[in-house]
Amino acid sequence: MTTGVLITNLGTPDDATTGALRRYLAEFLWDRRVVDMPRLKWWLILHGIILRMRPKRVAESYRKVWTEDGGPLLIISQQQRKAIQQLLEDKLGGPVPVVLGMRYGNPSISSALDKLQQQGVERIIVLPLFPQYSAATTGSTFDAVSRVLQQWRRVPELIFINQYHSHPGYIDALANSIEEQWSGHGPADHRLLLSFHGLPQRYHDAGDPYQGQCNATAVALAERLGLQDGELQTIFQSRFGKDEWLKPYAEETLRMLPAEGVRDVDIVCPGFSADCVETLEEIAIQNRDLFLESGGREYRYIPALNSRKDHIETLSGIILDHWGE
To answer: How many CB atoms lie within 10 A of CB 287?
Structure first.
């Protein structure tokens, strides 16, 4: 049986322009999994207000991290796909189709699955690169995959991996990246902040397990690093709109820490498998400025796991764990 692999991430606009951001945000924010408001009311807000104002501001953020080759998330995701394919082929001793699809934007999940169909796969392993499950990310990815497969005459056997928040390899890779940053000064000198993408509180109240899995990641990482109470703190970033989101909020925490005597921080984003505008611009630039302006002394962003060898080995291992199912 021919097995193919689909890895996915959230997505990125085609370029850092207002028009491209408007198209991207229109697709992203119309997803019911992302915004669950009644459709007519939300359509009026989205098209009457948000898509008239937000794309220009967001495009400015993207331009700060854009490269000649495109957006960082797409570039890194392509590197991850290539590295995972190479490692799987080395371990399995033959060709393994591995494709990349973005939930929003390009390359689309539909186009990625078409590639697998053209190669005659009879079985597909899907690995969304979201370590912690949320309906707004992993759940939405499942929706997109299933919509495409509904159009296939021959539906392949499907294995959908919906989280790996406490996988030992993932925790080890995070710990390794942090310990490399600490080389020369150690954890006692800096408060370690784990910044996860935020989620509306009502999604959690409705049963989304995301916050619990973020906390489980934090506990496992603290144990792996041997940290004591007060040396590690979980925060939530990227809040949007006026509704209550998961707390504590990243911006409020960074504004208050210097007044509490914490003037040096290291910050890592365990929920992001690849660096993107939310890590490189929001966390590494905006929040750094906020912390220093609030009296902070040293602020160090620890990059996402990206294409690190231990990260690629972990992702490949997760896929291989499901290979014989």
So the answer is: 24
